[in-house]
Amino acid sequence: MARRSPRRKQPPSASAPSGQAPAGATGFGKKRPQRRVGHAVPAPGLPKSLQQVHLNAAGIDCGATEHFVAVPEDRDLQPVRAFSTFTAHLIALADWLEQCGIDTVAMESTGVYWIPLYELLEARGCAVKLVEPGKLKMIAGRKTEVLDCQWIQQLHTFGLLSGSFRPDDQICVLRSYMRQRDMLVRYAAQHIQHMQKALEQMNVKLVEVIDDITGVTGTRIIEAILAGERDPQKLARLRHERCQHDAETIALALQGNWREEHLCALQQALELYRFYHHTRDELDQRLEAYLLTFEDKSQDEVLEPRPRQRKLSNNEPRFDVRQYLFQMTGVDLMTIDGFRTGYLALDLLAEIGMDMAPWPTEKHFCSWLCLCPGNKKTGGRLISGRTRKNASRAARIFRLAAYALARSQTALGAFYRRLKARLGPAKALTATAHKLAQIVYSMLKYGKAYVDRGVEYYEQQYRARMIKNLTRRAKQLGFELVPVTVTPAPAQ
Asked: Is residue 196 scored above 90 in pLDDT?
């Protein structure tokens, strides 16, 4: 018999830790001896085409009180550990990952618990990939935090996870400001409803004779009511001269039952409404100051002021949003029909950023927004072309912009109305939002300017396409399409 050669001892890995868990960490799993990290080899039982893409990958299952972290089994005696969510323990987690030689991490997006850890690891230079929980479903009956983080680590090692989009830190700050502002506007709107409810309970029909109770006329009348005025004629004389209804009609609406509890609710709702608007104005000052920190891409060009087509609403910023957007992007996004409101364009920029590199083409961008038709096929047959459901704020903004084109005398407005007549309002709204997304993508990536050709140009192009299709169809059937000059009937 041939004599077996003695097994050669391999030197320990330079990146292997000492095996002691840091403070706030708990070890899980079977302890294994340390071994040297080798080259990428396919796992047993897997096809050769499935290779390990990320050798230094870790998986994290995020929670409110604990984060469960899994690293490759050859990096530590305890490859799975639990860390508390306190800042000191998050720092210990990041230190442990560095000791294990981890350079890329995949984590599950659970609520907002992942944000502090994400920002810490990203600041350490680690490539962090945020994964939706729906893409990480495990086998039924084996749902535990330990198995979750190990499953995430295994999938990420073989490159089977796609991360969610998250813009750079500068855009993330802008996004936080815009979402905070949106929350303040929504809270203020709730107190408008509370004022309307208090007036209705007193049978004061101010809502029926005034479109906006927070306007000039409504504010004057409510303040006078809270000051103790009860005479309907005196209250009606506080109306603005441009108010639609006359003083007699408003006086009839202001005869009510002045109960003390309803007056108290009206006063508190008005005070809360004004408080949220005051807080929003303070936030607008911070927002305007932050917009100045972005790189100026306008090459010191100042846009010519456009004639104002409508009055600014109470919820829009009072600073020049259009000029700030032009300085940040180098293109005038407010030239796009549907984005005439600067606040809507700024809100969109806070959601998608200014760098279109995460989406190679406009088709990828529209697919990420879930604004393109579905492709559910089986057996070579299309089962459903329904658009995928999503909760994207950016998609909601594009739909709002598309809805604003319903009566617009523009090419996009004509496109929306034609599809609405043929497919219905829901599909027309999605298709118009899809076209707006393509325009925004081209402007931000290639710096193209948008020029509206008008309704007549769109109708001419549509008529030319119809004639071309009819001519082709008639030729297939053996006929020839001949134009006929129609003489208009004489006027009687």
From this structure: yes
* 117's tokens: 């850890």
Q: How many CB atoms lie within 10 A of CB 100?
A: 21
For residues 129 and 161, what is the distance between their CA atoms, to the nearest angstrom?
8
- 3-class SS of residue 345: helix
Q: Are 324 and 400 in contact (CB under 8 A)?
A: no
How confident is the model over 197-236, as pLDDT tens digits?
999 999 999 999 988 899 899 999 999 999 999 999 999 9
Helices (DSSP H) in 292-410: which residue ranges?
Answer: 321-329, 342-352, 362-369, 393-403
Q: Of the ranges 48-52, 155-159, 243-247, which one carries the lowest mean pLDDT score? A: 48-52
Q: What's the CATH class of domain 25-31+51-157?
A: alpha beta
β-bridge partners, 105: 58, 128
Within 10 A of 277 (CB to CB), how many other CB atoms are there? 17
φ and ψ at 447, to 5 degrees? Answer: 70, 25
Helix (H) or strand (E) holding 70: strand 66-70
Which residue is listed with tokens 């700050």? Answer: 173
**Do the domains at 25-31+51-157 and 170-291 have one common CATH topology?**
no
Exposure pattern of 430-446 as b/e (b: 16+ CB <10 Å)? bbbbbbbbebbbbbbbe
String of DSSP letters for 417-431: HHHHHHH-HHHHHHH
Structure confidence at residue 341 as a pLDDT band (50, 70, 90) = confident
Domains of the chain, residue spans: 25-31+51-157, 170-291, 321-376+383-455
- Asked if 444 contacts 329 with a C-beta cutoff of 8 angstroms, the reply is yes
Is residue 1 scored above 60 in pLDDT? no
Residue spans of alpha helices (H) in 334-453? 342-352, 362-369, 393-403, 411-423, 425-446
> Which CATH fold topology does 170-291 show?
Helix Hairpins (1.10.287)
Q: Which two tokens stand for residue 453?
A: 């050709």
Contact 490/444 with Cβ under 8 angstroms?
Answer: no
Please give the angle made by the CA atoms of 80, 82 and 88, to the nearest 5 degrees: 130
Chain centroid offset of residue 68 CA? 28
Strands (E) across 72-174 are located at 80-84, 104-108, 127-131
pLDDT at 123: 92
Q: How high is the mean pLDDT of the chain?
A: 85
- Tell me the one-letter amino acid at 152: I
C-alpha distances in Å from residue 352, one per residue of 112, 140, 170, 474, 480: 19, 36, 12, 46, 50
